[in-house]
Specification:
The complex is a heterodimer of chains A (about 425) and B (about 180). Chain A is mainly α. Helices cover about 60% and strands about 0% of the residues of chain A. Chain A contains 16 helices and two strands. In chain A, strands 1-2 form a two-stranded antiparallel sheet. Helix content of chain B is about 30%, strand content about 25%. In chain B, the strands form three sheets. Chain B has a three-stranded antiparallel sheet, with no helix packed on it. Chain B has a three-stranded antiparallel sheet with strand order 2-3-4, with no helix packed on it. Chain B is elongated, with a radius of gyration of 26 Å. The chains are: A mainly alpha (about 425), B alpha+beta (about 180). At the A-B interface, helix 7, helix 8 and helix 12 of A face loops of B.
Chain lengths: ~425, ~180
């Protein structure tokens, strides 16, 4: 090996000993200490850290739940009730885990909204976006598998409906479904494997999150103005500035989730899931978890089985190619006067889809779901490429510092005498 | 050493190594994939005999066969006529009523909606039976007629008819 490589020197000899053999300390110093963050990043940029913390919380609470859970059709429901009533603090573990899942999705949805609105998916962060969509897919799979485990009515019939989606595939569908279930219908074999997969997938997510974070650290974080860091004046070190900011965000998040865990732990739960699974009786109204409801609405909006399934998966798959559908080089919607409104419309539309996804698919709700479906795909296939082509973006600031110079000069009315802009380059407008 | 034949040998060795590796990997993965298919005891799920002597005309019972609900209905005259009147060619999954029953008054169906696997309503007197007076799936609104054929809604196929036989006038063997 290269004996001449530069080894970082610390005062502490133990650290030196480790650093010489495994340069992990200088790695952390570089990636989490001196790591430059754009200084204009707002609290939207804390949701990546919040998501990571939530993932760890889910894994930890899940491991402790698994110690008392029995993945058998005869015992699963009772073992969950035992966790709730007899296991010390079992109720707390379970409520952390079930509400943590919902909050995980809230956080990740905000994280995605942030990435979409401020154009974080654009060059050079496309792969980062793709990894993120992949994480989102894994999260949906994991939460679906986990929802099956308590073996209540919603668990059983949710699993039945979702696994039946695969039977829509021509020729191989029926066989594929049977293979996934390990039986001709959802049964003990299914519950067993769902538990095994629900246990392992979070660790896969953890791995992909590692890649996701490593990828963002290559080119650094995007920011609300969507312009690159040009000089040292544009950034602050991660430690202590952003760490403190993320910590404050974490405190706020802790208050929010604790309020739900302790005062409304079943707010987001379905009553029917407290009835043990019965293969002979379908609940009058099967509802998915609210965080998957927009996609469920798309599934039901299509009057054809295969078509509905294809569009539902297509709604997620389309996200992968967003960086290539959007032709505008301007990242932040703050500087895109037309696209900004379509983007906000997309968020509202997604919310509406989720709302009708929880209601019966009939009459007006069905109509709303179909309009929402059209907007969802129209946004990606027509609006995004087209607006990027016709829109004239607003003038971008010269640099991140320049944003502050402008703000200050506006406030004190002092014109150029505010804070001198360190950006010497001409406006390149990206 | 000539260069050309040497390269060919190299290519051959590379190709055969990669092929052998791929086949070996596939052979190793197969048992793992196959272990997820239904096990032998699951496949060996037997048949069920049902006593139908107590079922009145117009009445319907639900029994469990291979973990699935099976509907056995003694149809009324009107229901049989309604099922027979339909032109098979007008249907999404064209089938005559005669193809779906062995004895006209007895209709035997797997009670699993062919859309996404819910159990349709219509077994109890008080249940919603849908627009065609047969069964109605509450999950996504599929309507089945008095022969269990799909008439309206997202389901692509008629309700399945399981394999069954009449052992005598009062006993059906399903499976």
């Amino acid at each position: 090996m290269d004996q001449n490589r530069k080894v970082h020197k610390f005062k502490n000899p133990v650290l030196n000993w480790i650093e010489f053999r495994l340069p992990i300390i200088s790695y952390f110093k570089k990636e989490y200490g001196d790591y430059p963050m754009p200084k204009n990043c707002n609290y939207f940029w804390s949701f990546g850290a919040l998501a990571t913390i939530t993932l760890v919380t889910m894994i930890v609470s899940g491991i402790f739940l698994a110690m008392n859970y029995t993945p058998h059709t005869e015992m699963a429901f009772d073992s969950v009730e035992r966790i709730m009533r007899d296991v010390n603090y079992g109720w707390l573990m379970r409520y952390i885990h079930s509400n943590g899942a919902a909050f995980f999705f809230i956080i990740v949805y905000i994280h995605i909204v942030r990435a979409m609105y401020f154009g974080s998916y654009k060059y050079p962060r496309e792969l980062n976006w793709i990894l993120g969509v992949f994480i989102f897919l894994l999260m949906m799979a994991t939460s679906f598998l986990g929802y099956t485990l308590p073996w209540g009515q919603m668990s059983y019939w949710g699993a039945t409906v979702i696994t039946n989606l695969f039977s829509a595939i021509p020729i191989i569908g029926e066989g594929l479904k049977t293979w996934l279930l390990g039986d001709y219908n959802v049964g003990n074999a299914t519950l067993n494997r769902f538990f095994a997969l629900h246990y392992v997938l979070p660790f896969v997510i953890f791995g992909v999150v590692g890649l996701h974070v490593a990828a963002v650290h290559v080119h650094g974080s995007n920011n609300p103005d969507g312009i690159d860091i040009k000089t040292k004046n544009d950034s602050v070190n991660f430690f202590p500035y952003m760490l403190i900011k993320d910590t404050i965000a974490m405190c706020a998040f802790g208050v929010a989730i604790s309020t739900v865990i302790f005062f409304g732990p079943n707010l987001m739960a379905e009553v029917d899931n407290y009835i043990p699974a019965d293969p002979l009786v379908t609940p009058a109204h099967i509802v998915p978890n609210w965080y998957l409801a927009p996609f469920y609405a798309i599934l039901r909006a299509v009057p054809d089985k295969l078509g509905g399934v294809l569009l539902m998966f297509g709604a997620i798959a389309i996200l992968f190619v967003l960086p290539w559908l959007d032709r505008s080089k301007v990242r932040s919607c703050n500087y895109r006067p037309i696209y900004k409104w379509f983007m906000m419309g997309f968020f509202v539309n997604f919310f509406v889809l989720g709302y009708v996804g929880m209601l019966p698919a009939e009459g007006l709700y069905l109509l709303i779901a179909r309009v929402g479906l059209l907007y969802y795909f129209g946004f990606f296939f027509i609006i995004t490429p087209f607006v990027g082509w016709i829109e004239k973006p607003n003038k971008l600031p010269l640099s991140i510092s320049d944003v502050y110079a402008k703000n200050i000069s506006q406030k004190i009315g002092g014109g150029e005498k505010g804070i001198p802009s360190p950006a010497m380059q001409k406006d390149t407008n990206l | 050493m000539a260069k050309k034949p040497d390269n060919k040998r190299r290519d051959f060795l590379q190709l055969s190594t990669v092929t052998l590796g791929a086949v070996g990997t596939a052979a190793f993965i197969w048992p793992f994939l196959k272990s997820m298919s239904p096990a032998e005891d699951t496949l060996a799920a037997g048949s069920t005999e049902v006593d139908i002597s107590t079922i009145e005309e117009g009445q319907s019972i639900t029994i469990k066969w291979r973990g699935k609900p099976v509907f056995i209905k003694k149809r009324t005259k009107q229901e049989i006529d309604a099922a027979k009147m339909v032109q098979a060619s007008d249907l999404r999954d064209p089938q005559d009523d005669a193809e779906r029953v062995q004895k006209e008054e007895w209709l035997v169906l797997v009670g699993v909606c062919t859309h996404l696997g819910c159990v349709p309503l219509g077994q109890k007197i008080s249940d919603m039976k849908g627009e065609y007076d047969g069964w109605y799936c509450p999950c996504h609104g599929s309507h089945y007629d008095t022969s269990g054929r799909i008439r309206k809604g997202p389901a692509p196929k008629n309700l399945d008819v399981p394999p069954y036989s009449f052992l005598n006038d009062t006993t059906i063997k399903i499976g």
